[in-house]
Amino acid sequence: MKNRIHFNSSENQEVQKEQLFLAIENERKTIGYYDLPSQNIDEILDYSKTFDSSIENIVVLGIGGSSLGAKAIYEFLKPVKAPSRKLFFFESTDPLNIMEILSQIELSKSHILVISKSGSTVETISIFKYLYAQESNASNYTFITDKDSDLDKFANKIGSKIFYLPSNVGGRFSVLSVVGLLPLSLCCVDIKELLNGANKVRESFFNDGYLKESLLNKAIFYAKYHTTYNINCLFAYSETLRYFVEWYVQLWGESLGKKQCSSAFHVGVTPIGLIGPKDQHSFLQLIVEGTRDKSVTFIKVADFENELTVPDIVLPYLESLDTLNGIPFHELITMQSDSVIEALIEQKDIPLDEIIIERVDEESIGQLIYYYELLTSLVGELINVNTYNQPGVESGKIILKEKLKNRR
Ligand code: PA5
Fold first, then answer.
1. What is the model's pTM?
2. If you measure from the C-alpha of residue 30 to the centroid of ligand 1, how many angstroms do you get, rounded to a whole number?
3. Is the N or the C terminus of the chain less surrounded, counting Cβ atoms within 10 Å?
4. 254 an active-site residue?
């Protein structure tokens, strides 16, 4: 993984960088996600081996941090590694969506993972009730939750298998815990390689490696200009990353959009997830000519390991595009991203950088995930918010629970 920064980010900031690094090292003593790359995963691997080929589908009931990470990784790898089982996600109370997913799975050939840190999320529990009313065999369910949550108590009562989240790992930072690892492992994703990728970024940051400077520089820039460049666009040039950018939107938005810890100011950098080349034909106009309130990070894949090529044929009236003849699509998509990057650099007032991942594999997505978790923590520290809580989300949940009580 490489990170090329095209904006001036590092002048006279040595003291600030040192302080920021120390603050994160200190936070690492209490916040659990930092050291997930070196956790023991034997229990997850051993449990996965107990599943035989009669289970064709893994069904996740979860929302937000309990589903988006596993979905991002599964969908990233799907085009290159046919998964051994299909992974389905029930994330919505939209009845049409519930019915649509149900029509694709046979419950008798499925294992259901009920994932909720709090164990009391309305979306997850309502869908669980719906499925449990049809299929109440406890061995068809595995629960992932906090120890002593109401869901833990229920799962214990019916005698299902339960995995616990480390209490100091928050929902949206939990993809590299059992929350993401179990569903992925059950679909034969190489979770060791995933953690290996994350570990490379962790080592690089905490042990003076090549990513330390760019992460610190970027975080300081984003924080310093968070009122000027208050929108951060993540522009990924591969369809494989479309759910990764969704995961990023949740991580960045829910972690950084807050009231500051020691003031009454509301702050945040708005995340936008874009996919190239598709969004060149829509949102790009706003970046190039719109208000100068956006920074842009491009993600590129260095090696698609695929030689699909535009055929060398001449078509009447389309001769002006014969320049496309014989070009491999991987080269075309890279030329497209490079052309947009060049055009934006010419504008001179749009801060941008490029992240280049080696290929579509577990190690690369593990790196990207850990890189973005770290960047989120760094920016949160600098803009003085509690990166790990979500009072804004909680307030709506409380009102909904009141409304539900009053409805009865
Ligand atoms: O990051 C978070 O804390 C949230 O997005 C949660 O993951 C989400 O609200 C789901 O919560 P739970 O896992 O408790 O069901």
1. 0.96
2. 19
3. C
4. yes
